[in-house]
Amino acid sequence: MKKVIFVAGSHQASETSMKLAEETGREIAKKDCILICGGLSGVMKTSCKGNKEENGISICVIPSSEKPDANEFCSIIIPSGIGFARNFILVNSADAVILVEGQAGTFMEALASYIQKKPIIALSGSGGTADKIKNTFLDDTKRIKILSASSPKEAVELALKKIEENQK
After folding, report:
1. Which residues lie closer than 8 Å to 47 by C-beta, 6 or more apart?
2. Full set of structural domains in the chain with CATH
């Protein structure tokens, strides 16, 4: 079964983060994995764009009930109609999570991933939530450490390594 990697990040991202997200999407496709994301703009859109350019598959779980709200690079659109609660669908569908920049919504996704003990890799240098929580535990339970990667390729490789370790 193909591995599913959740790319979480800013709706309104910096130019640097958009480039990192696009490359992350490409790397996910190159490793024959499925990208899952929130399907809107910013990091979500550019990760889908990079994924599509490498003939990858992206699953986009959007907060609204209207398919046209998704970005044009989504392969499969799931209109949840449940707003931010869709974040739990994203987290539970993923085998690992890569954070690119991010604000409060990304932090919420990271927290949900942390509770589920999903491997979380923060793309260092992308800013926002990713840089704030890299190399940390989110609480005193120390469920999992948020890992850090310096490039999209390293982030995907680290995600796959952690998935493999968790399956043993």
Report:
1. 7, 9, 21, 22, 24, 25, 28, 35, 37, 58, 100
2. 4-163 (3.40.50.450)
In a 3-state reduction of DSSP, which class is residue 66? coil
Q: Taking 90 as the threshold, does the pLDDT of residue 168 lie above it? A: no
Per-residue pLDDT tens digits for 49-85: 999 999 999 999 999 999 999 999 999 999 999 999 9
Residue type at 127? G
In terms of DSSP H, where are the helices of 95-141?
104-115, 128-133
* pTM tops 0.85: yes
Single-letter amino acid, residue 24: T
What contacts 95, CB < 8 A, 6 or more positions away? 3, 4, 5, 118, 119, 159, 163, 166
